[in-house]
Please model this.
Amino acid sequence: MTALRNVAAIVGKEWRHYFGSPIAWVGLFVWTLLFGIFYYFAFTFFLEQSMRVAQQGMEMGGGGMKLSINEYLIRPLFHNMAVVALFIAPMLTMRLFAEEKRQGTIELLATSPVTDLQVVMGKFLAAAGLYALMILSGLVNVALIWTYSSNPPEWKPVLTGALGLFLLGSSFLAMGTFVSTLTKNQIVAGILSFSLFLGMWTLGWADDPMGGPVSKVVAYLGVTTHLEDLVKGVVDLKDVVFYLSVVTFGLFLAHQSVESQRWRA
Amino acid sequence: MIEVESLTKRYGRATAVDGVSFRVERGEILGFLGPNGAGKTTTMRILTCYLPPTEGTARVAGYDVFAQPMEVKRRVGYLPETPPLYPDMSVRDYLEFCARIKGVPGKERRGRVADAIEKCRVGDVRDKLIAKLSKGYRQRVGLAQAILHNPDVLILDEPTAGLDPKQIIETRELIRSLAGSHTVILSTHILPEVSMTCGRVVIINKGRVVAEDTPDNLTRRLKGAGTIRVEARGEAASVLEAVKAVPGVLAAHPRGGHDGAVIVDVEAEAGRDVRAELAWAVVTKGHGLLGLQQMGMSLEEIFLHLTTTDAAEQAPAA
Model:
């Protein structure tokens, strides 16, 4: 109970920082704007393709086949937003610990009856919560399809895609929380985090059908590898477990780092 | 309430605190005095469980800082050297947050925050952002944070640093009013602060305790009988003789002189002011009296005496 209360107190404080500063607003604005733009492009592309296919169908004489809106709209949209998450995640995590260290407020947290783990969890959950809010506000665009389309997409892949996007971003946020414990300077934390996230991302490129077992393993560790199925609407336990493992690992490192710095200080 | 035993803290090869031991009884105000880098902050950080000690033990309110840090943290209010404030929060929000993480139950939170705001006189800025506050207000908000959960022990690292004289007096009064119900350790290098607020002083230098006593005793002990420096024009032997003849004078030591002047340090009986008689004795012997100075050691001098290193920067004007 106390543990939950402490974590909630930290989450509340972080949200106050996010929304009391431009971070949350800029993040939400940029996210929804890009979501809208990508949505628009994916949508127009889908319409063009549909028209073309329909026309071909007419020429052939039969009724045209219908293109899957999930395939042409939702999937590319989520893949694009994953790239945006790569850029936005460092913004959300870079100041989490760096700022406390610079301001000396880490001393307040460390001498209050809260454990280091509660602080780490609170900060991560605050970032993850804001990120979830971003995803939800982006999904409003997608919800419009149900209102206006006579041929709505399947809703399950939309949900699993959003889940995938959330898990992918959470992996970044957990690792970013860790990186933020390493320095007093939030810009340094931001740059290091982004480099790390980029590394996690590019591991996925090692996936080569002709490659040997090494490339398979490396690709398995890439964060994007596990997004594919979720965006298609397939919830594979191993993908979820992968993301949760990365999150746990990041938080573990963050906790170790916070604790050991006090020993070495 | 606080028992510190041969506490040692090393940072790599450097030893910041070296075998420090002292005790603080319930309701006492202990002054922690020493030059910068003497180990005051490190000792306080160990007592607040911010840093683990390398060797030795410290118990606060009966709990070991190393073995039962949560119990200690619940019972300690701590104001670090720079108040740990979030500039983007209002005073009230900040204190609400502190109350939460300090485990103040929800029902009491509002009352405690209001109480701390009132005690530390930050009511007129309670809705302002901390970033907009002056140094004096920030310090007081920091103090409010420390007393918020009504801790048994208050550990204040230079609570009056950076305040103007009026704020210093107010802060001292506040600290004094907290004694009794709280046990207080405060560190400072402003000496009058110690004699004005603290019941007992621990002087620390280079990580070691060099003296521990009440401010009065320390002053008395080092003052000895009280020395008066006499500077007169004339022959040394004659001046010495004149001075020694004054009733109440225990001894007189010639300290040399220059330009025909002699300097004599006179030890007088404690509590007896012989300056008038000395002046009379010197003048009636036909010597020109050039100066008469009470040499009794103030707390400043004791401090300098005990911690001679880096003295110049450590002795602010009293």
